[in-house]
Amino acid sequence: MDFYYSKKRDAEALGYFDEGTKGTWRLFNIEVFKECQLTQKTKELVAVVYAYITRCPYFIEGHAKKALEVGATRA
């Protein structure tokens, strides 16, 4: 997969969030991807949609790759 943005992550971007916010996001992410009735493929596809809505190129690429790894197709 190739996207239009620079592949180099902007480390400065994380500086806009305090540690509490980043920690809460990490915990949320762990909970969301725990095993449950939804398959990992479904969860990753939902994450791709959310990433497109929020226009986060890092999440788009990461979740699109993960979705393909767990059985999604480009279609």
Provide a brief overview of the structure.
The protein is mainly alpha-helical.
Task: Provide structural commentary.
The chain has 75 residues and is mainly α. 56% of the residues lie in helices and 0% in strands. The protein contains three helices and no strands. The chain has helices at 19-32, 40-54, 57-69. Helix 2 (40-54) packs antiparallel against helix 3. The chain is globular.
Report the sheet with the most strands, covering strand number, pairing sense and barrel closure.
none
Q: Pick out the low-confidence regions.
A: none
Q: What proportion strand?
A: under 5%
Distance between the termini: 14 Å
> Helix tally?
3
List keywords for this structure.
75 residues; mainly alpha
